Amino acid sequence: MNNVPQAFSEQTFQNFLNSCENFLFDCDGVVWNWPSEIPGSVEFINRVKQMGKKCFFVTNNSTRTRETFSQQLKDFGVKDITKDEILSTAWVLAEYLKSQNFNGKVYLVGNPAMVQELDRLNIKHNGLEEHKDYVFNSTNYNEIELDPTIKCVSVGIDYEFTFQKMIYASSYLKRNDCIFVATNDDSSLPVPIPNIAIPDAGPILSSIEKTTGKKALVIGKPRSTMWEILCKVHGLDATKTCMIGDRLDTDILFAFNAGIEKSVLVLSGITKESDMQNQDRKKLPMFYADSLGDLLKFI
């Protein structure tokens, strides 16, 4: 991987395109800044698809199922898209627990998409609104009722995260036989308004890790778990694959960790061009561009 990220020229882009058989796209900050498409992103994806390139969408967003993601991509205009081209962390979480022959019950700090993916594989879990009536007041410890069948705490983004959920998740993790898994540890969501910050799953996860002193197994980017699944199902070659994302610490580092030779950073989401200065080389892309739409002039 080149240690000095380059902007594309027409020649370098053509060489790059000819060397790629597979494209992995992040969604938030690459295809869309929800709810709006990033201009030109869908047209770029459709053009590379027309060239016979395989396209996959690899996202840390746990708030949608694969079916929902594929329908949203269709609605934006992406052609010939199926759920098999989608890897979302809600789906990967359920598949991971299945692969581990997990047969207990999950305490879920998360969202409805995670519920749907666990239900799909008949993995038992708590309800998202469980314990909402319990309010800790520093004296009512005896009102905390723990379920003896909980054997896993799973954490994703939870728009209704509460102190009560932190208490229950942390208490279950005091058990030696309770595993700890998270969809992702991204710090924040990409938003189109510069003075607004929206936390992602990372701050939620950190609060539970800090309370318990335990570290979760994180299955999303930058860990290579999703790439391993893609390789197993689709037989992809890392030397002929490119990862395109908007974050250095997840997308680009994911490419490095997975052994994917080519990566492109787009500046249409979280990362600014100045953020590439003084970065660990593992987090540096081979190329960068303002957006996918900015690359249309080379096709």
UniProtKB/TrEMBL annotation:
Family: Belongs to the HAD-like hydrolase superfamily.
Needed co-factor(s): Mg(2+)
Binding-site residues for substrate, renumbered to this chain: 221
PANTHER family: 4-NITROPHENYLPHOSPHATASE-RELATED, FI11325P-RELATED
Entry EC no(s): 3.1.3.41
Gene3D superfamilies: HAD superfamily/HAD-like
Cofactor note: Divalent metal ions. Mg(2+) is the most effective.
Binding site for Mg(2+): 26, 28, 246
MF-aspect GO terms: metal ion binding; phosphatase activity
InterPro entries: HAD-like_sf (IPR036412), HAD-SF_hydro_IIA (IPR006357), HAD_sf (IPR023214), PGP_euk (IPR006349)
Active-site residues annotated for this sequence: 26 (nucleophile), 28 (proton donor)
Pfam families noted in UniProt: Hydrolase_6, Hydrolase_like
Native source species: Brachionus plicatilis
EC category: hydrolase
Annotated Gene Ontology cellular component terms: cytoplasm
Domain of life: Eukaryota
This protein's UniProt keywords: Hydrolase, Magnesium, Metal-binding
Identification of the protein by name: Phosphoglycolate phosphatase
